[in-house]
Amino acid sequence: MGDPKDVIYVLTASIGGADAILTGGLRDFIESHYGNARVLSVRQFLDLHP
Prior knowledge:
Largest sheet: 3 strands, mixed
Shape: globular
Order of helices and strands: HEEEH
Number of domains: 1
């Protein structure tokens, strides 16, 4: 993970059973998925859920 401050978001998504992590900084997330949570930009999320 590029920014250590993002660890809290990954943990929260994992513990909460989230399907996605929305971010404005995709480059800060090395993996495309963390557990079941897929890392998406807001635009990607909106394109998938019109």
